[in-house]
């Protein structure tokens, strides 16, 4: 696990976008593992620019998102389906709908939905490059503290910390779904390469813990210490623990 301080959110996001771009540019049938959240907004802006500047054809690229809220349909403004459409997929018409995988949060049979998601991952995977954000409690995907390192895609309960952090996107805390479908930790760890991006002073403490702690299910991201190809990309605020005012 290697940490790189890119100084600010702009440079960090450009780096992550460029790494994603290089993977698709080298392999037109690449498999991407994608994340949502505030941290990724500038990554997708940069990736869209690189894709269009280089006229990439994305029809054979597969994408797998980490998670979706249970109970939100694909057109709900706060669903991760909407997020991905708005931040990435709508900017290029060569993305192929049938190669875009995001869990269906309103599936009538969530168990079957989760199994089907894993089957798709096994069919097209392993993921060539997985990007991750991190929760202030150390979650990756929505694998909250205590999640089993053997977990695969399933329904999870969101922790209070996650509900509080994500309530800024909803009218109030009570509107935040209490559950999500999340790729499991074992599913994430199958990726060939992982880049975790953490920006802003609020992520300083958890990244310090991640770098120094034992591998423990109490801090889900700590499993990344055992993966052979992980980079942690941060800005000054995460690295030094003070806000430099340029994030968000
Ligand atoms: C999002 C996801 C989460 C976020 C994390 C950080 O798909 O799986 O793990 O990456 O909660 O969120 P932000 O970037 O909003 O701080």
Automatic annotation (TrEMBL):
EC number: 3.5.99.6
Keyword Hydrolase recorded: yes
Substrates-to-products reaction catalysed: alpha-D-glucosamine 6-phosphate + H2O = beta-D-fructose 6-phosphate + NH4(+)
Keyword Transcription appears in the UniProt entry: no
InterPro entries assigned to the protein according to its UniProt record, in alphabetical order: Glc/Gal-6P_isomerase, Glucosamine6P_isomerase, Glucosamine6P_isomerase_CS, NagB/RpiA_transferase-like
UniProt-annotated catalytic positions: 67, 137, 139, 144
CDD domains given in the database record: GlcN6P_deaminase (cd01399)
Keywords: Carbohydrate metabolism, Hydrolase, Isomerase
Pathway: Amino-sugar metabolism; N-acetylneuraminate degradation; D-fructose 6-phosphate from N-acetylneuraminate: step 5/5
One annotated GO biological process: N-acetylglucosamine catabolic process
This protein's GO CC annotations: cytoplasm
Domain Glucosamine/galactosamine-6-phosphate isomerase as annotated: residue spans: 12-226
The organism's place on the tree of life at top rank: Bacteria
Pfam families, A to Z: Glucosamine_iso
TM spans (from-to): none
UniProt GO molecular function: glucosamine-6-phosphate deaminase activity; identical protein binding; isomerase activity
Similarity comment: Belongs to the glucosamine/galactosamine-6-phosphate isomerase family. NagB subfamily.
Role of this protein: Catalyzes the reversible isomerization-deamination of glucosamine 6-phosphate (GlcN6P) to form fructose 6-phosphate (Fru6P) and ammonium ion.
This protein's name: Glucosamine-6-phosphate deaminase
Organism: Staphylococcus gallinarum
